[in-house]
């Protein structure tokens, strides 16, 4: 397992457990059950205590954990009869945004997900989850398709931000993001967005202007990364920890500010320790959100979504 910097005491305890088990394999007569159980209890208590009081910067680290489940992990477990749709009908295909049609617990839906990849090859393929303009234009296609056929939209945001390179700017990155936000706000069907890891900048907001916005307990959501904010305000990325606190990027802060609608609890120790449990918890929350909107007309859904986002400016 990959341990984060603040998890060193946990790593030491769990390392001792592994060592004891190896010794027992070498010497079958060695009785280690009592000691292993004691260490496991200590480790469990330490994990629970550590994760109950994470700082904003530590939550940033957890949200970026390489073992955290990514969109394709969610899709493989909770979506059925998946029909992926590729391309933006203008320039090409963007692999950072995976989209299409599927069934979610028996219900036909349209989906949009940002995929980071989980090894070198897949990360390069998906450009580390940083989409080009064609990725957001593909999202617009999905929104329009869902609106035409009355399909709920499920989106899963997990990106460090839209790709900031020259090629993206040449093809209209800002315009593509704006169009995607506009399309999300305009769809007359239930639209649920879930921040499953990093929800950074317009790159995440582009697919998260939803009727219901949920966040995993240790995910983050902000208009800019802590490093980017620190570089602008303090002229140094070394101030990222201070920026993470000032930005109010945690799920708990954003729920208090009424920017999101609910927090999805993670397994003790984060989603990377029990990925399937985390995915199932997200699926349950989405089911509840869809049920809340059952029976609403398209105009009612549209009005409620717009009022929700207008209220954010009034509240702040």
Quick rundown:
The protein is of the alpha/beta class.
Strand content: 15-25%
Radius of gyration: 21 Å
CATH topology-level fold name of the largest domain: 2-enoyl-CoA Hydratase, Chain A, domain 1
Separation, N- and C-terminal Cα atoms: 41 Å
Query: CATH architecture of the largest domain, please?
Result: Alpha-Beta Complex
Largest sheet: 8 strands, mixed
CATH superfamily of the largest domain: 2-enoyl-CoA Hydratase, Chain A, domain 1
Estimate the global geometry from the Cα principal axes: globular
CATH class placement of the largest domain: Alpha Beta
Average pLDDT for all residues:
93
Provide an overview of this structure.
This protein is α/β, with parallel strands linked by helices and 316 residues long. It folds into 2 domains: 5-53; 60-315, 2-enoyl-CoA Hydratase, Chain A, domain 1. It is built from 14 helices and 8 strands. The chain has helices at 8-26, 33-51, 56-63, 71-78, 120-125, 133-149, 166-170, 173-186, 201-205, 226-233, 240-247, 251-256, 275-293, 298-315, and strands at residues 79-84, 97-104, 107-114, 153-159, 191-200, 212-216, 220-222, 262-264. Strands 1, 2, 3, 4, 5, 6, 7 and 8 form an 8-stranded mixed β-sheet that branches. Helix 9 links the parallel strand 5 (191-200) and strand 6 (212-216). The longest helix has 19 residues, at 8-26. The radius of gyration is 21 Å and the shape is globular. 41% of the residues are buried.
